[in-house]
Specification:
Blueprint: H1 14-22, H2 36-51, E1 58-62, H3 68-75, E2 79-83, H4 86-95, E3 101-103
Length: 104
């Protein structure tokens, strides 16, 4: 069982692990560039406005790819963390996501 800050414990995540293990063949490299860049740079501000997300809120990006959404949320003053999968997650962490919290 995992311990959180303050000593609280987290649930057993074996079902989540099984789900992610079953998705391993669904992982594909995402090319960096257009139209991805335009989609993210337009969508993130739209999400913030539509859902009235307060600055400083925590944002979790599951399947964060190259980390562009993470960087965009961080530029808007959010506390970001990304979870990446596969070889791309390692490359992305090393190449493009300096200073971002990521879990592989």
């Amino acid at each position: 069982m995992l311990k959180c800050r303050g000593g609280a414990t987290m649930r057993d995540y074996t079902k989540l692990d099984a789900f992610l293990d079953a998705r391993v063949d669904d992982i594909y490299p995402e090319p960096f560039g257009e139209p991805h860049v335009s989609i993210i740079t337009q969508t993130v501000p739209a999400l913030i406005a539509h859902y009235d997300i307060k600055r400083g809120a925590k944002v979790l990006d599951v399947g964060c790819g190259h980390g562009l959404a993470l960087r965009t949320f961080r530029e808007h003053s959010y506390d970001v963390m990304g979870i990446g999968f596969g070889d791309e997650a390692q490359k992305s962490r090393d190449d493009r996501c300096a200073g971002l919290s990521r879990i592989q």
